[in-house]
């Protein structure tokens, strides 16, 4: 989150290089005033990320829209904590359900990713709720009456701007290239056999990875961070059984930043659907003791689980609700929900979101992400050759219905037959993993451009008891981007 910056600071020249540049502009609310901080947080060839903070300097605002224009053809591709639309050069960011109100001297922040070509100058002006940026705090005045409208050189628009972001497309088939094995157990006396089930976010210049530690004696969690993937294997391990998360069965973590509470959440399985929170993702001892979303296994799961296991909890939120997915290793995907305002409390009883009579085709490790104005669902399957792979679906809503995207062994999302390796393939399994997100908050945004997926792989010749298998982490990168 960019720090609050008051009106009156000087805006750097529009031609500044965008990377690391923060433009601070005065803005005026409809009946008062505000300040706006626009900061490019990162930039790469053809793309950039930005954070915007609006501080209300006057009377409370209930419902807001912030408008600016780009002068060099930039396009917003993805946003979080606001609904952002673009028509030509003009961009409009509107509040979502949980941040509509901005009290006096309070702030609201949102972020987005965009594309650029040639140059990426900062916007030179903003308007808030239709009022041009003028600086300071002003009182509304009554305009003099007029009998005729002012002259205009162009007719007013006859249609409103679009109310949803432009659709971003995913291909209907995928190809990938894989790294070698990047991360495995340390030789530190713990007797860990495998590192698996990774969750990853990029924050404050570092990749932060949480994963399961597996051995015959059971599972727990590990955290490590690094600035470049070449450093992943040498990163220091922080074992979370030494934190308030504690010892005992903890596995399959998912990490995200819940912006309404300004807390990081770590969701994981303990025999129940559990979570811990932390204000600082880089502090491994800052996690709270486990709490549970449910009082116990919900009845609908008991009725359908058969000889499977209740596993792999996953949370994603839209502007109104937070949804909790889980699997049962028996062909069922479950979904519960609660409001963003009540999260993490009040999870509803699950419903079956998807099912398959062949449990191997809908096994476990579901992931759900936001891609523009749609959602992408990934589920791990077991192939006819016994190897793990991922199927995919898309939907306009987190609640479904879901339409198959790349969901068959001859057209998979990710499987050994659409992944190339340098030299001999170190794994024939593309198993439990997570896409590299374009933002860290609870909406789990991803960009369809050059997808990367951190996965667990396995020596093809390995065998034995499942918990003692030598799982390692690797990274696949999409090679057929539509962007």
Automatic annotation (TrEMBL):
Record flagged with keyword Secreted: yes
Enzyme class: hydrolase
SUPFAM superfamilies: Arabinanase/levansucrase/invertase (SSF75005), Carbohydrate-binding domain (SSF49384)
EC number(s) stated in the UniProt entry for this protein: 3.2.1.55
Recorded GO MF terms: hydrolase activity
Keyword hit for Hydrolase: yes
Residues of the signal peptide: 1-22
PROSITE patterns for this protein: CBM2
UniProt-recorded name of the protein: non-reducing end alpha-L-arabinofuranosidase
Lineage: Bacteria, Bacillati, Actinomycetota, Actinomycetes, Micromonosporales
